[in-house]
Write the structure tokens for this entry.
Amino acid sequence: MYTNQINTRLLYPSFSYFEPATPEETVQLLAKYGQDAVILAGGTDLLIKMKQGLIDPKVVIRVKQPSFIEKKPDGFHIGAATKMRTLEKSRAIIETFPALVEAVKLIGSVQIRYMATLGGNLCNASPAADTVPPLLVMDAEVSILGPNGSRIVPLKDFFLGPGKTVLSKSEILTEIRIPPFRGKTGTAFIRLSRASMDIAKISIAVLLQFGGETVTSAKIALGSVAPTPILANKAAQILIGKSLTKETIGRAAETVAEEIRPITDIRGTAEYRKDVSHVMARDALEIARRRAK
């Protein structure tokens, strides 16, 4: 029985707690304790799972990493420990990545966003993670630190399944990198959920780049429609090299519905998700087109 079904107190099993001073020390502790250890960042997912008895770690490691948003020649670098509220209020992020801000604003309440971190949202590896579709269309990469040093992984290759990533038990996520846009660019994010603070029934992000009136690059990503967030590559390919007419948008939106692999769960049926994906794709493409202009 879940603890929070019989009381409202924070009752956790006993565990050892570490608060290393650097990411390197965190990696050393993970290498030592392996499967018995979990990482605590914002705690908005981990602590709930511990309270419900879904996980029972023997070791909890409070990760201490820099929180930062930096613009560099190769794009924006965002620290994995950066709070959602910091992203939401960042003028640079608002002006450059409106789709990411739209996604962040839909995550829980303001109180949650003061605690939740961008890295935590990615490492939780939920198919419904709100920040993932906009980061996917922006070709984001993640920097991972382990016992053998750092490695860079495209975000599209980071997720393996629900709750699963390419991180080994002795690795941590340290940074998210978003390359600069080229030419006229528009982005958009739309989410459908049962209530304002519920997770997504379905979400979609779009990025369009133009040379004159012609689409030179297009990306479409969706959440809650497959075991991991996905890129609808066939639908995006329909747009490239064409003017964005209603007919072209309609064809791409129909293809989105054909590419996704939704399931039926308590939030909606697979059929409903397929039907609504067509409408959401069309709306997101229209928004991105307006923003590019």
